[in-house]
Design brief:
This protein is α/β, with parallel strands linked by helices. Helix content is about 45%, strand content about 15%. It binds zinc ion (2 copies).
Length: about 260
Amino acid sequence: MKFSLTDFHLHTRGWSSDVAEDGPSFEDYILIAEEQQINICFLDHYELYYVENDKTNPFYNSGIDDYLEEIDTFKETYDFILSGLEVEYYEDKEIQLMEFMDDYKKELDFIGGSIHEWIIGYPITTKNGLSRFLEKIPMKQIIDDYFKVSTKMINSQIFKNICHIDTIFRYINNNEFEPTEDSDVSDDRVIDLGRLCIKNKLKIEINLSGLKFPIKRTFPSKNVVKQLKSEGASFFVGSDSHSLDYFENQISKVIETYLFLNTI
Ligand SMILES: [Zn+2]
Ligand SMILES: [Zn+2]
């Protein structure tokens, strides 16, 4: 790779449904990355449930081959880009996920596993999804279930890289949906997930997206990163960009985060 540091988490227009129609294309990111001298990895959402059931999903009907072809074409010109996917974990689709990994892990430079929803239609990473979920299920249980499913994902060893391990706190925190008294929102359980990553030799993302939410911290927090690093964890850094402006502003933070990692 041409540059020394890499932003591992970019979402593009047309491939991730949570990017606006006038959002960034591969090329838009590439031009800025070249100027700012940082390697980039495209990490669009690959959610098997929607890939199989939703005809409007960009990856429906082998769209992944077009995705890879597009990125490969850019790779012929630019030597600082990586092809990747942020693959959603589903407890009841482990076999299909393993098959997918067998088929594609060699085709892609980087695959990160993540959890946004474990009950279809109730993503905990959107405000609307979480509030509808909270109308059905008590907060304590939602949080506990998040950690249970995350534990399963990590122990399944399907993925070698895990994205935003405590993203359940994107909206559940003192600045937004205040945790109920019976909820366990301690760092300890995030550290326990990180320890499982260490045990299973998985890399952990330092995801910068929390900086744009009222929680104003990375996922996981710097204190958790410090603790886990001292116990032997490996990390990668992702801005989780969905727009060009945001990406541009995050580059210096990505660099700072790698520096931080080197000083702890
Ligand atoms: Zn994500
Ligand atoms: Zn993402």
